[in-house]
Amino acid sequence: MQPAGTAASAPPSPPPHAKRRSPSVRRRLLLLTLGVLLPTSGISMIAAYTIYTEARQSITSAASETARALSLVADREVAYRAGILKTLAASPALDRGDLKAFYEQAKAVSPEIENAIMVTDPQGRTLINTRAPFAWDNVPPSAIGAPPELGRLDARPMASDLYMSKLAQQYSFSVWVPMIRDGEVRFNVSMGSVARQLQRIFDQQQLPSGWVGTLVDSQGQVLARSVDAEHMVGRRATPDMMARLTGDDRGVHETVTLEGTPVYTVFNRAPESGWIVLIGLPRAEMRRPALDALKTMLMISLAMWGVAALAAVWLGRSIEGPVALLQADAEALGAGKVVGPKSTGLAETDVVQGLLARASLDLRDAEANLQQRVRAAVEEAERAQSAALGTQKLEALGRLTGGIAHDFNNLLQTMSSGVQLAGKLATDPRATKALGACERAITKAVKLTRQLMSFGRAQPGHREVVDLPRQVDGLAELLRGAVRESITVEFDIEPGLAPVRIDPVQFELAILNLVLNARDAMKGGGQVTVRAVNRRIESGEVAGLEAGNYVAVAVLDTGHGIAPELLGRVFEPFFTTKPVGEGTGLGLAQVYAFAKQSGGLATVRSSPGHGTTVTLFLPATSEQPLGETPGVQAAPPPQHSGTVLMVEDDALVRGLTAQALEDCGFSVLVASTAADALAIARARDDIDAVLSDVVMPGGMSGVDLVHALAELRPALPALLVSGYAAVLDTTLPVRTIAKPYAVADVARLLAEAIRDARAARPAG
Is the same domain home to 580 and 660? Predict the structure, then answer.
């Protein structure tokens, strides 16, 4: 029993969880909104930065390509002037020391004051300046001297930095070319040009709006500029830009223009002149697309944040009642009461929200991973497709080239066989020479076909040991066809003529130029004589020619001759006595240059009314020229015997080759396909050898035919021919030969094969 007066005990405290309140739905919606929008905003920032980075990279790459292209254009300006100077440096007037004649020639090339031709000696003394009258002394000195390294290693031209010309009173630049004789610099020939001529580099290449192009020399002085050139030429690049230009040939540098505008400067140094092309890209213009994108992203993000916050508040208020109801149902459910289904409830909303939240996160990660994998797969597929397309193109080009070469070789084989047959029947010496020219043309066509098969790899011109009588004999028909009927061309070639080492193409061009000049000097007809003799030249006998053994090739005409006052200028470039439009003045210059390059000399002797003689002195050599394939005048081929089965799908080749082999003594059976050949081989047992093309219609090649014949007639020899070089590379124990072939070679190989096969047969 409780004692009287004792107070009743206090009621029990509520459970701890009853004091805690879970976050409201509104708060959860706001947190969810922030959780979704914050990554989105971050992605927007990354996208804006990516846009800026890619845009800047794209623009700087384009500017780099433009700078490189403009640097090559600047080098072409130097190369153009260097070409003129090299032509002038080869003038015989300089060799003779005739400065007056060279001054007139240089003045004709550069009549305007904007370009001046100057000649200085190795000591730096100016001998000629076309901006001033010619004088033997007191020539105005050049504003800038030749570089000390000019001509030390080679004859490469060099360009100067910007300078102020005293005579032209304008900013100018110079291009130098050394005149080298016997390994020493005799003179320095230069061209001074006003700098504003370089402005066409930017006038012809319109830069995008906002870009500023500048061409500076190696010291950073402005040579030309796309903007405000008249005020900027002659100014020097900023010190920080000069420090970068000193160390690198190309790159990108943050700096300011001469007007003070912040820019990204892309620069590229010209490989030949050493000048540098700068392209300034305003930094503000490059940043504008990124800033615009960033502003747009921020505005979109703020709008999304506002809308999301309002939606969260509205949704929170709209579900407060259902959440309270669901909470009651959850307590009842916890107490063990049966709760009917509800259209909404906090427990279900939490589960769904949790599932959706987790699903959304998983989906986002999965989508990003999937997009990355898809991009990688697409890129890999594109690379594979590009590689496959490139391979298909190369294969198609190879098949097309091989097909053309095969068909062309068949045509060449037909022409070669026809020419060889005609050579046997020809009795007229002129026909024999014409057929020889045809054979040489076929030989050149064979070389062209081989070049086609190697995808056009060109063989550069070169000097080789040449048999001049054979070379001149090959030119005879061409030279006679180049003159009128009223002019005769005669040849006087000394027996035992020594070989020479020359470029045969340049030699033929030189002789053709001399014969054409002789033709033009004999309007009423006459005679041209090509004479070649061995000559021993003593020291001092021919001016400018060292003592030694030479072959003198002279072209004589009976024309009107050359006036004495003009005789010393005939080898000068661009000099001609022909009317305007009838001559360039380069023919005899080519002859002179060819003789000098060959180690010899060209001379001219003439008098009015008594014709002209131009002589090429070419150094003789003890080397022997390479052997050549005999022409149609070769001795008749030996007679052979035996039965040959010829398999060839081209009717022309088949007919002519069969006839030629019969003329060699063979009995010929012909077939157009491998199947027909097999049928003949089964029916005839007197066949001694097989001559077969490799590529044939019908699905069975010559190689397949050889395999089939090896089973049918193991001891039957075969000879494979083809216009494809690659298909002749076979491991079969058979002889091979490429089209077009000489019938005598085929007859010899067949005879050897028949002889070897007969020798291998058992006796009896």
Answer: no
